[in-house]
Design a protein that fits this description.
Blueprint: H1 4-9, H2 12-23, H3 27-39, E1 45-48, E2 51-56, E3 62-64, E4 67-71, H4 86-110, H5 114-127, H6 129-138, H7 146-159
Parallel strand pairs: 2-4
Antiparallel strand pairs: 1-2, 3-4
Helix pairs in contact: 4-7
């Protein structure tokens, strides 16, 4: 029997509606994502299930409405990877893409509130030296924060692929 949830989120009309929602309800973060996209115009881009993915030479990912930015596994020499195994690097990059794609659905759900709830919270959680040391001290994973756990669940449910687990 055909998985109706899978076919719904992968249909052409849903992709068009997804893009429409990101450009209207999620317009603020999509505009910021477009600005970041222009800054990284020379980096490789592709469509990732309706979103526009930029593969940049960093280990970090970010999601801004219609746009996701994920590590480029082909430029692994430019960043410090914990593994030299090409398959592990590719798997890690794909898991980050699933996670960032989950954030795009948070953008659809929250609309203009996304940046002030998920965006700022995620940014502080990932970049703040204070929270980096607290995560290390208490053995907390990056995904233990509610915004990150939610993004993982959304990405995994919609794409039926594993997300990040660190």
């Amino acid at each position: 029997m055909k998985n109706t949830q899978q076919s719904f989120f992968h249909s052409t009309w849903w992709t068009i509606f997804y893009i429409f929602l990101q450009c209207t309800w999620g317009g603020l973060q999509s505009f910021l994502g477009f600005c970041l996209f222009l800054i990284h115009l020379k980096d490789p881009h592709d469509f990732y299930h309706g979103s526009i993915r930029t593969k940049w030479p960093t280990l970090n990912g970010i999601s801004l409405g219609l746009f996701i930015f994920t590590p480029n596994e082909e430029q692994s020499g430019n960043v410090k990877w914990t593994s030299t195994d090409r398959n592990k690097i590719k798997d890690k990059c794909e898991r980050i893409s699933v996670h960032e794609f989950g954030h795009t659905y948070q953008s659809i759900i929250l609309g203009p509130l996304y940046l002030f709830t998920v965006g700022i919270t995620s940014l502080i959680w990932s970049r703040s030296k204070h929270y980096q040391s607290k995560r290390k001290e208490y053995g907390l994973s990056y995904s233990s924060l509610w915004t990150e756990k939610w993004a993982n669940r959304l990405g995994e449910k919609i794409l039926d692929r594993p997300s990040i687990t660190h």
